[in-house]
Design goal:
With about 280 residues, this protein is of the alpha/beta class. The protein has a single domain, classed as Rossmann fold, CATH 3.40.50.1360. It contains eight helices and ten strands. The chain has a seven-stranded parallel beta sheet. The protein has a three-stranded antiparallel beta sheet with strand order 4-8-7. Helix 1 crosses helix 2. Pathway: Nucleotide-sugar biosynthesis; UDP-N-acetyl-alpha-D-glucosamine biosynthesis; alpha-D-glucosamine 6-phosphate from D-fructose 6-phosphate: step 1/1. It is found in: Cytoplasm. Keywords: Carbohydrate metabolism, Coiled coil, Cytoplasm, Hydrolase, Isomerase.
Length: about 280
């Protein structure tokens, strides 16, 4: 497990975007070799998506041979609703890059048979060869995707009832009206994400600091589902300084020291053509 600490949200977003770009370029995707990427929604990944769009427009990165699988989608919200995750992904990312729409997979929260939709999603991931890099974010209560506190740590894609804390947090996207916030969602399971060859989790802001503490300084606990990724062989937590406020000083110093070693010897971020 790695913890990468950057000074602020913008630098954390840029680091994450460069890491994703690096992984895709190193993979050398082609017509018979697609890179498979798991993607989140929410406010945290927006800066990362903006940077990826920038790299694409500058000619540094193509998504032509990339397949994506999104973490979740609300149940009962029309696909064209401005707050659906279909709308979020197309408006904030997909329409700005060269991905084939047939390769961008998002759960259908309006499917006639929701369990069949979840099973089909798992099958599509398997048929794609599994996920090379799953990018995720977390809620203040440490949930990843919509795997709310108490979720099974070996769970698969399924229908979930949202916790009240999640509904309250999402009310800002629905004019503050709790009655408009969906109460159920389809979500990949913790086990689904754990199956990815690599996982990168974005955690920014002081309001996520206690969740980061629970994720890396305490044991694995189904009440903090993000903590499961302590047991993944290749997990990277990318955070800003504000998110480290609940961590022990020695923990922060330890991981900052490792960053210098990794950046110099193991996994330097790719160099852009413009030298940045």
């Amino acid at each position: 497990m790695r913890l990468v600490i950057l000074d602020n949200y913008d630098l954390a977003s840029e680091w994450a975007a460069k890491y994703i770009c690096n992984r895709i370029i190193q993979f050398k995707p082609g017509q018979d070799r697609y890179f498979t990427l798991g993607l989140p929604t929410g406010s945290t990944p927006l800066g990362c998506y903006k940077k990826l769009i920038e790299y694409h427009k500058n000619g540094h990165l193509s998504f032509k041979y990339v397949k994506t699988f999104n973490m979740d989608e609300y149940v009962g919200l029309p696909r064209n609703h401005p707050e659906s995750y279909h709308s979020y992904m197309w408006n904030n990312f997909f329409k700005h890059i060269d991905i084939d729409p047939n390769n961008a997979h998002i759960l259908d929260g309006n499917a006639a048979d929701l369990q069949a939709e979840c099973d089909a999603f798992e099958k599509k991931i398997k048929e794609a060869g599994g996920i090379d890099l799953f990018v995720g974010g977390i809620g203040p209560d440490g949930h990843i995707a919509f795997n709310e506190p108490g979720s099974s740590l070996v769970s698969r894609t399924r229908l979930k009832t949202l916790a009240m804390d999640t509904i309250l947090a999402n009310a800002k996207y629905f004019d503050g009206d709790l009655t408009k916030v969906p109460t159920m969602a389809l979500t990949v399971g913790v086990g689904t994400v754990m199956d990815a060859r690599e996982v990168m989790i974005l955690i920014t802001g002081a309001h996520k600091a206690f969740a980061l503490y629970k994720a890396i300084e305490e044991g694995v606990n189904h009440m903090w589902t993000v903590s499961a990724f302590q047991q993944h062989p290749r997990t990277i937590f990318v955070c800003d300084e504000d998110a480290t406020l609940e961590l022990r000083v020695k923990t922060v110093k330890y991981f900052k020291g490792l960053m210098h070693v990794h950046n110099k010897l193991v996994d330097p971020l790719f160099s852009m053509k413009d030298g940045n």
